[in-house]
Amino acid sequence: MIFSKAFLIQTAGSAVAVLILTGIAAWARLAKPMPILDEAAARQYFTQDFPASKIDQIWISDDGRGAVARSGDLALVLFVAGDGYIARHLTWDQAMAARPVNGQVVISFHDIAAPRGQLAFATWPLTPGI
Amino acid sequence: MLHAPFDPVTLAVPFFVLAIILEIALARLGWVKTHYETRDTLTSLAMGLGRGIPGVLLGGMIFAATVFVYQHRIFTVPFEAIWGWVAIFFLEDLTYYWFHRLSHERRFWWAAHVNHHTSQHYNLSTALRQTWTGGIAGTWSLWLPLAWLGFSPAQIAIQQGISLVYQFWIHTEAIGRMPTWFEAVMNTPSHHRVHHARNPRYLDSNYAGILIIWDKLFGTFQAELDEEPCRYGIVKNLGDFKLLRVAFHEWLGIFADLARSKSIHEVLGYVLGPPGWSPDGSRDTSASLKTKWRELHRPTE
Ligand SMILES: [Zn+2]
Ligand SMILES: [Zn+2]
């Protein structure tokens, strides 16, 4: 047998500890506050992740938990995972080709680290200049 | 001695559990500043739990290699000698520094280490977000010279364990700064926060295990600056909390890039270049991000 009895007992004990600790963490409600995004906050996130990109325009999602920025031919996308923001970019045309379903747009990034992001936009594609 | 009579990490597990409960309790009481997100916590702890499985599978092979080298040693360091423990304390920590630096600066080894950095949080649970693929990446071979010098496999294993246990407590925002002399010599929560930060000016710094002196010696030290709060995670944060994504995403990224490589130059770049290397420079590396950041913050006359 590859795994000894002692190893299996230890692992089972640790697994129980993992569940208890996660339960305590959930109970404590210590997640970062996620205030509704405004344009200034979204711009700050975009500048952090794309320091060299000139931002032409920003759209905040309908629920204030995501944003899209246009930077030339690119769409910069900000979406939520847990209590943090994730940023990715793709071409503007690729992003606008996504279809909204029930007020949600799912954008594919072709990236194993973050395959897709979901944003609340009832009106899609976005129209620059408006 | 070949087999270690005890494993510092196993012995420390109850302490890890109690320390995490304490950190959560103090944060809950509002006495310290820290954040825990449920899925993030579960992912970190599960990575720590799963770490044992590849450890068992590859551990025998790594142990056999260490014993083999030890059998061809040039000196013999007695296990009981105090000077031996002092020597291995410094030598193991130096080895750790170069292991850790390699693990950040070359993509093949980054693929095995990146998961430790995938959390956007910095709390004691983050410390347990350990790699599953370190054995495959082969970085354990960096410790073989210690066996060749005459440190027994048991002594090397114990010192590695001590280093890992030391590094647990520094994964916290609950401690601001330690006394000045301590910050000068030792790796601390402040120094390691910088190591976990994705702010461009903080990237690729503070590789220390126990002693921060190596970073100061080799030019990779970066102090935590009050005007630049740490933002944790990796340059391109993960889109969710899936365990398999945390453990394997960079390996899959390497395979995907290799599949579309057009030359041996590209193959080498994708595997042995810095993380983020691309043939046309369209992706960001630490260096390119630092350059962009500097451009943005260039003092204007
Ligand atoms: Zn690291
Ligand atoms: Zn760490």
Annotation keywords:
heterodimer; A: 130 residues; alpha+beta; four-stranded antiparallel beta sheet; three-stranded antiparallel beta sheet; elongated; B: 301 residues; mainly alpha; 15 helices; 57% helix; binds zinc ion
- Compressed to H and E, one letter per element, the order of chain A equals HHEEEEHEEE
> Percent of residues of chain A in helical segments?
25-40%
Task: Report how far apart the termini of chain A are.
Answer: 67 Å
SS field, number of helical segments of chain B: 15
Number of beta-strand segments of chain A: 7
Quote the average pLDDT of chain A: 93
- What pattern of helices and strands is seen along the backbone of chain B? HHHHHHHHHHHHHHH
Low-confidence stretches of chain B: none
Helix/strand-derived class of chain A? alpha+beta
Q: Which strand-content bin applies to the residues of chain B?
A: under 5%
Average pLDDT score of chain B: 95
Total number of beta strands of chain B = 0
Main structural class of chain B: mainly alpha
Radius of gyration of chain A: 20 Å
- Mind summarizing the main beta sheet of chain B? none
Shape of chain B: globular
Helix % of chain B is: 55-70%
Task: Name the pair of protein chains with the most residues at their interface, and give those residue counts.
Answer: A-B, 38 and 48 residues
Terminal Cα span of chain B: 65 Å
Order of the strands making up the biggest sheet of chain A: 1-2-3-4
Overall geometry of chain A comes to: elongated
